[in-house]
Amino acid sequence: MVWVIVILAVIAVVCVVSIEIKVRHKPSLEGIEDASAVKAYDRLSQMPQFAAMRGIFVNELKRHNPSGILADVGCGPGYLLNVLASRFPHLNLLGVDISREILAKARDNLTSFANIDFKLAGSQGLPFAANSLDFVVSTLSLHHWSEPSASFREFHRVLRPEGQFLIFDLRRNPPILFHLLMRVITPLVVPRVLTRIAEPLGSLLASFTPAEVEDIIKGTPFREFEVKKGFFWLFAWGRKG
Ligand SMILES: C[S@@+](CC[C@H](N)C(=O)[O-])C[C@H]1O[C@@H](n2cnc3c(N)ncnc32)[C@H](O)[C@@H]1O
């Protein structure tokens, strides 16, 4: 009897860790504008799980040897730019965000870095000349974009030939375990001001599956690209020909 229970328990654990869940796509708000939500997101961004995600992102970025001018689209309060400025001091960095409020927070957070410039703009209409950037990156922002396809076309316009993009985001088909953790932990640790705007569960539901991101990029001029999945995240990389 004990063995049956142990075997069933092992099967249950394997299922929640390995079986992927796919829930219906539910778009979320485009920009974080509310001042108290910006403050709460800024605090959340300093927590170890967010620092760990930035670590995962930087490891992947290193593989693509970034150089020249790099724009972080949807930079939020700027913590990734902070890491990039110290890990890749040779880069000229641009922080872009659609929210005036959060961009002001990023400016405040990064006053000590002279090589970072900020622009208020949406991913679908970047204030840069054609063929002017070497790299476009973005973390945890793609699921907010109202026009993802137009945004990838815009990246193609602003990137120089051989320029690359690397996008990191949640994926809407994570293992059941992650989905359960989000549902259980969110109400316990996330500030009310964020749960009121449906974060962070809303972000998971608004995110795309790797197959959906591939379909979006296929409809743009990028011909060399790859979408990879991690435990609960995805990476989309591409290069302009
Ligand atoms: C969840 S935050 C992520 C911030 C930061 N990149 C990070 O990893 O913590 C999403 C950010 O994307 C911005 N955003 C949403 N839609 C955008 C768009 N279409 N273009 C540029 N920024 C956008 C929001 O204002 C917000 O600052």
TrEMBL record:
Keyword Protein transport: no
Every Methyltransferase type domain range: 72-167
Taxonomic superkingdom: Bacteria
Gene3D superfamilies given in the database record: Vaccinia Virus protein VP39 (3.40.50.150)
Pfam families linked to this entry: Methyltransf_11
Keywords: Methyltransferase, Transferase
UniProt GO BP: methylation
Tagged with keyword Transferase: yes
A GO term, aspect molecular function: S-adenosylmethionine-dependent methyltransferase activity
Protein name: Methyltransferase domain-containing protein
Organism from which the protein derives: candidate division WOR-3 bacterium
